[in-house]
Amino acid sequence: MKAAATDRPRKRGSRGPTPAGDVSLRDVAAQAGVSPATVSRVFSGNASVQDETRRKVLKAADELGYVVNGLAKAMLGTAPRILVLIASELNCPEFTELAAGAEQVAHDNGSCLALALTHGDPAVEQAIIERMRQRRPVGVLLATAGTNPYNITAMRAYAEALKAVGATLVLCGQTPMADAPDLHCVGVDRAEITRALVHHLYEGGHRRIALLGAGDHAAGRQSLAGYKQGLNELGLAFDANLARAVRDDVESGQLEALLARSRPNPPSAFICRSDQIALGVYRVARDSRLSIPDQFAIAGFGDSFFGREVDPALTTVRVPYAQVGEQAATIALQRLDDQDTDAPSSVAIAGEIIPRPSTRAEAVRF
Amino acid sequence: MKAAATDRPRKRGSRGPTPAGDVSLRDVAAQAGVSPATVSRVFSGNASVQDETRRKVLKAADELGYVVNGLAKAMLGTAPRILVLIASELNCPEFTELAAGAEQVAHDNGSCLALALTHGDPAVEQAIIERMRQRRPVGVLLATAGTNPYNITAMRAYAEALKAVGATLVLCGQTPMADAPDLHCVGVDRAEITRALVHHLYEGGHRRIALLGAGDHAAGRQSLAGYKQGLNELGLAFDANLARAVRDDVESGQLEALLARSRPNPPSAFICRSDQIALGVYRVARDSRLSIPDQFAIAGFGDSFFGREVDPALTTVRVPYAQVGEQAATIALQRLDDQDTDAPSSVAIAGEIIPRPSTRAEAVRF
DNA sequence: TTGTAGGCGTTATCAA
DNA sequence: TTGATAACGCCTACAA
Prior knowledge:
The structure is a homodimer. By secondary structure, chain A is an alpha/beta fold. Chain A has 3 domains: about 5-75, lambda repressor-like DNA-binding domains (434 Repressor (Amino-terminal Domain)), CATH 1.10.260.40; about 80-190 and about 320-350, Rossmann fold (3-Layer(aba) Sandwich); about 190-320, Response regulator (Rossmann fold), CATH 3.40.50. Helix content of chain A is about 40%, strand content about 15%. Chain A is built from 13 helices and 12 strands. The first copy, chain A, has helices at about 5, 25-30, 35-45, 50-65, 70-75, 95-110, 120-135, 150-165, 190-205, 220-235, 250-260, 275-285, 320-335; strands spanning about 85, 115, 140, 170, 185-190, 210, 245, 270, 295-300, 315-320, 345-350, 350-355. In chain A, the strands form 3 sheets. Chain A has a 6-stranded parallel beta sheet, with helices on both faces. A 4-stranded parallel beta sheet of chain A has the order 7-6-8-9, sandwiched between helices. The radius of gyration of chain A is 27 Å and the shape is elongated. The termini of chain A are far apart. Chains A and B meet through helix 5, helix 6, strand 2, helix 7 and helix 12 of A and helix 5, helix 6, strand 2, helix 7 and helix 12 of B. Strand 2 of chain A pairs antiparallel with strand 2 of chain B, so a sheet runs across the interface.
């Protein structure tokens, strides 16, 4: 099958790199008795080739087992460039949906999705971007954007470094940042949904509402803003002790719920930045034999499927993360030179509260 | 920044494709007053270049914002080829661990991990492989292998098609297949762990043990084999009605548990192919007010974190999926031409039963 | 419709 | 240590 390539004697004057050993377009041309250009035309599809010729070429290609070399096309810019997705970890449920959405769009455009993980380390993130620049991706989706330490300077530097090699940076998981309108963002409006959750809990009779997830990242900042606004609208006082930064795991939720309980004038409701955090609060409620939602109302975020399995079922926020991934990929893939406008496009995705018994006085059975 | 590239007048005779517009090695050479070869040597790192010259080159490169073009290197075979991971969906927890492990190894080798999803459609799978062949990956990890319809002919065809372009196929999620020793496999020994689970449930007093997950895929076949062996060792009769093929979601588990209940001589214990299936059985237990584990013993698979949150906590099987990903990636990345042996390497990873109250008569509090 | 040839950005060989 | 050059596999402007 590789005979043609292997047997082809290297020209005497050859000083280039060793051939890959693959069957090349020229091998097919020789076999079919046509010029390389004709073979190229057959496989590009867009030029006109006589049926007879096309058949000959396809036959020869089939015999030799020819497969177009996408790497060569990539160098010429005639193959779709790859799309890169950078995330912190894969184990958060929302991420997988996002990746699936991005993958879908990438593949529909003939591109493919490359995955890179930072493990929460900004230095690794920077190294990844630097390395990916060499691969000339069409774009980079930065899914760590929402939960990384808030650092617009770094984001802007990334965007410019990528733009220099023709790649578009899209920050995923957060709505447009007021102080950086030049950056592409796709994500949930955490401020609005948090505001709505405050109202939801208030209507359930709660007056001391804690926020677990007010860290110094985009999601945390937005949540805090919406939280404050909600309290303000309802005439509730803001208590800094109730707005907490937490890591995103069950244990952190458990710890924070315990800490909250130990304070004077403890909260009776918790808005959690994720369903996992919420599970930690459940643990405390169970261990302390507190009734949910009367003594402990709990709202999560992400609509993880286990939220329906816990007892009582968990109120949460559904976010179409697949859409986030799709939108982000779409922005990254659209050729920016198509339009003269260099205007960044951003998309805010709305979340939806899914009310369940964990926040309702009358525990309705599902 | 792009000045050098843009201003460079195209040679009169040029008929090639339009230049990418990037700063190239030649631009740097011109700026530094050296030959392109020297610049190449500086960035390749392995050749000897005078310190003085190196400095000049790096300075010029920095001024122009030069970034090595990995696509050109890829074509020459001097850049690491990509590693492809094909999966059905992303939403199963074990998959994310696997991907993370593979990503780690890929990046440590200077490669990168491309993700592709089949959505359970074999036709899509085939199309993906065909397309990926063009990108000349170093290898393809097929994570759908364990749960796809059992089809060795197709696997072997994939392996050969990939080998023709220099790529290695590794089947993930299943132990070596007895009838296809020529295929690389990395995965959990489902037979052994299922056998162990049968014994575990037997010791808990159960004599009617159902298997939810005996479908016609590699994992199902192996599970069934281990299930039968376990029953046999314990002198229990095999009842085909108790070995069921199920889809991998909560609802399917629920349905199967209901069906099992409606049979004469129903089972009192369930070995589930995943924790999600197990959750479905929990639903039935809860709805029918059956006590777990006395009337309904339940064992899952995968050690999903929510297994600790349900009540009583779920007995499950922990599998080091990250290791599966790492091993698979390692096999794919190792240059096969290093050794003359074409012998396929396969790795069997052992699972570990994590006993929890859902299968124990005396419900120990964790 | 087909062939010719020059070029994409890089590397390897040979010669200096 | 450095430079000139052909080559990797493909594409496209132009000529035939």
